Amino acid sequence: MAPRYGFIGLGSMGFGMCLNIHSKIPSDSELYICDINRSALEKFVEETTGKAKVTILDTPKEITEHCMNQDIIITMLPKSEHVQHVYHASANNLLSASVQPTGQPKLFIECSTIDPVVSREVGQKVQDSSLGNYADAAVSGGPFGARSGTLSHMIGCDDAILDQVKSVVGMTGKSDGLFHCGPVGAGVTVKVINNYISVTNMLVASEGLNMGVKMGIDPKKLTDIINASSGMNWCTKNNNPVPGVQLDSVASRGYKGGFAIELAAGCIDLAVKGAEDVGAKLTLGKPMQATWHEAMEDPRCKGLDARSIYRWLGGEEA
């Protein structure tokens, strides 16, 4: 019998990941989905008609009870507290299932960007439950990468289950983008560091481009020069914050979709906390926190992609 899959969290990232998983699992497999947003669940079912069976379930507990033996449960949630809620800190959580597996243990894969301390805590809860094994496999690549199946995964797990984890998350990402970072917690630790660098670059790119526009430099020409020089980064090259510079960028779509500014602020929060936990000095951490939290409350940015911080800086839009 083909393994069954459970997926919790159909936000912009989770939706794309789940679509890729559904497209690649055997037709005789089953996919169980759960989210607090009912419309997202119904939309997913509409987009997957005619392939492996998809069933909407109401609670995480039901996901566990339907995925009992040699099965896989994947979570993709916004924040640490949501992960705790789904796994163990609420009624009808994943680990509250009363039926124990009779065959090989199931596999829980947590793909959210969360506090590494929380990931290790959840991993211990899974181990104590005897329901299965646990890995964190944080992702990088954004909603576009989730849809296109080109995500990178930073994996934290025991060596014994690494091949199994890779076989699952590989359905959502690049074969050369599966990185084993160490034991549970190591994957999301690397992701927090990556996001700290990425979000910092996003702000600096927005500041530099805004400065250039106000000094009379054409932003397209400035971007071309930066991308051929040492200032090039992911933001300038792949998702420019200035509307109109790249027609396929989120900025050219009114900053709608993409990586929410609230999530960017949360990434900085995690990095600052992580650095404080281990005594690592961050010179930009606290100022970055203040900047992103102020920007995310600005009506011009709230609820939009993080590159809308260009607006907060006073950036000109055509």
Summarize the structure.
The chain is α/β, with parallel strands linked by helices and 318 residues long.
What do these coordinates show?
InterPro entries: 6-PGluconate_DH-like_C_sf, 6PGD_dom2, 6PGDH_NADP-bd, HIBADH-like_NADP-bd, HIBADH-related, NAD(P)-bd_dom_sf. It catalyses: 3-hydroxy-2-methylpropanoate + NAD(+) = 2-methyl-3-oxopropanoate + NADH + H(+). Keywords: Branched-chain amino acid catabolism, NAD, Oxidoreductase. There is one protein chain. This protein is an alpha/beta fold and 318 residues long. The chain has 13 helices and 8 strands. It has helices at 12-24, 38-47, 60-66, 80-87, 116-129, 142-148, 162-169, 186-214, 219-227, 234-238, 261-278, 285-296, 309-312; strands at residues 5-8, 30-34, 53-56, 72-75, 106-110, 132-140, 151-156, 173-182. Helix 1 runs parallel beside helix 6 (142-148), helix 4 (80-87) runs parallel beside helix 5 and helix 8 (186-214) crosses helix 11 (261-278). It is globular and about 70 Å long. It starts with a strand and ends in a 6-residue tail after the last helix.
CATH T-level topology of the largest domain: Rossmann fold
User: What's the rounded overall pLDDT mean?
Assistant: 95
Order of helices and strands: EHEHEHEHEHEHEHEHHHHHH
> If helices are DSSP runs of H or I spanning 4 or more residues, what is the number of helices?
13
Low-confidence stretches are none
**N-to-C terminal Cα separation, in Å?**
57 Å
Strand content: 5-15%
Category from helices, strands and their pairing = alpha/beta
Query: Can you summarize the main beta sheet?
Result: 8 strands, mixed
Overall, the morphology is globular
Broad CATH class of the largest domain: Alpha Beta
Question: From the structure provided, what is the oligomeric state, counting identical versus distinct chains?
Answer: single chain
At CATH level 2, the architecture of the largest domain is: 3-Layer(aba) Sandwich
* β-strand number: 8
* CATH superfamily annotation of the largest domain: NAD(P)-binding Rossmann-like Domain
Cα-atom Rg, whole angstroms? 20 Å
Q: Helix share of residues?
A: 40-55%
Number of domains: 2
Strand line-up across the major sheet: 3-2-1-4-5-6-7-8
